[in-house]
Amino acid sequence: MKILLTGSTGYIGKRLLPALLDNGHEVVCMVRDKDRLDIKKYKPEQVTIVEADLMKPATLKQLPKDIDAAYYLVHSMSMSGGDFSKEEKRSAEHFVEFMDGTKAEQIIYMGGITNEQQLSKHLESRKAVEEELRKSKVPVTALRAGIVIGSGSASFEIIRDLVEKLPVMVAPRWLKTKCQPIAIRNVVQFLSGVLHKKYTYDKHFDIYGPDTLTYKQMLLQFGQLRKLKRKVIVVPLFTPRLSSYWLYFVTSTSYPLAKNLVDSMKVDVIAEENDLAKRLHIELIPYKEAIKMAFEKIEQNMVLSSWNDAGDNRIFAKGLATHIEIPKFGVFTNRQTQEAKDPATALERIFSIGGRNGWYYANWLWGFRGFLDRLFGGVGLRRGRKNAAEVAPGDALDFWRVIYASREEKRLLLYAEMKLPGEAWLEFKIDDKNCVAQTATFRPLGIGGRLYWYAMLPFHYFIFRGMLNKIAGK
């Protein structure tokens, strides 16, 4: 079958793509920026990329009409500005208009469990999108999930941050809210399993794991698995705004996502029972087992996707390619070079920089810079990196975004996502003479940007010099 996959650069989409290919399907990946999806490891006759934007209907004309089915995995919960519910509704409207002109037999949509009468803004939006998709002539199969647990998922990473960093948690009352967490492996099985199953057409199904837990129980069970003694004290004093700030400062989540998550966590997310798992022969994975599986992937450096890779920000809006050309005029530059003692080792250190590996020199200063960034609403250092040894364009890397990464060219280019009075790039490159060049480029915005650069000059010199010496093996 020929399948259209939207949201293919997102957390779920990146997991679903290989499953569809393993089942022998031909997949057309719709992306806003082709540089964010690496398909070189797949057979070219099996997968193609088409650049299109659901907010720009004219671009959808580039998509093929001879598709058999389509997955709608688009959402905007982490948007930092604007009304994401209106954006999502318009995207769905444009998608329906396109789908009605195809020969597709099925639309598969993944939303959120919406069985409470009073829904959060996020869940209301998910429900509205489903209703909009049902206006299509093409039958819709809607799968509704709650908390998704897997390596790189937002829920998993937030729980991990809380448990591993806080021996004692003074937490909001929403920790008593109940949910039914589902393993990412089960999610992919459901998504791929309902494909072309006619008994699922024009129906919705809640998908859920076998455990019903409060968020507090999830935290404590996570701690037990990690052999960490943790105490959770629930207090009623936290307002939704305070709860959002609490999540934002303690975990790696962004503030917009924290706000929407807290809004969703105020109500129980209990599924309507159904026999879909039985009919698809899916063995539901318990919460603790899902946590174990997630850590196995992390330890083996086999994390396929991370929620951090699917941001909605200025970089993705303009496209990664627009940032590859580093400006040469009106910028400040710190360029240092060092001959590599062992070029192969130097290359490994370049591509392993950041995350748990650190920045090789004065890590406490990098940590302090990350802390300041969080204070001013930035992403900080807590995002880390999803793979300890490999990076690809579009990946989050602490408070940087990977713009270009090529081992063949021995080049890594990062673009700053921390709060700055300007724009910044950090480039590593090894030339034919085995010389490592490390270049920091800053394009200031106004007088504040220039003052910032001069204030940071002493730190830049010692930090960048120390980092380069470590990379080069001096």
The major sheet is characterized as: 7 strands, parallel
Beta-strand fraction estimate: 15-25%
Share in helix: 25-40%
Using only C-alpha atoms, the radius of gyration works out to 23 Å
What value does the average pLDDT take?
Answer: 85
| Sheet with the most strands: spatial strand order | 3-2-1-4-5-6-11
Task: Please give the count of helices.
Answer: 14
Overall 3D form: globular
Strand-pairing-aware structural class:
alpha/beta
Low-confidence stretches at least 5 residues in length (pLDDT < 50)? 78-82
Instruction: Count every beta strand, where a strand is a DSSP E run of 2 or more residues.
Output: 19
Distance between the termini: 55 Å
Description:
The protein has 474 residues and is of the alpha/beta class. Helix content is 35%, strand content 20%. α2 (84-99) runs parallel beside α3 (121-133). Mean pLDDT is 85; it is low at 78-82.
What topology emerges from the helices and strands here?
Blueprint: E1 2-6, H1 11-22, E2 26-31, E3 47-51, E4 69-72, H2 84-99, E5 106-112, H3 121-133, E6 140-145, E7 148-149, H4 154-165, E8 168-171, E9 178-179, E10 182-183, H5 184-193, E11 203-207, E12 213-214, H6 215-225, E13 231-234, H7 240-250, H8 255-265, H9 276-279, H10 287-299, H11 314-318, E14 332-339, H12 343-351, H13 363-375, E15 396-397, E16 400-406, E17 411-416, E18 422-430, E19 435-444, H14 446-472
Helix pairs in contact: 1-5, 2-3, 4-6, 6-10, 7-8
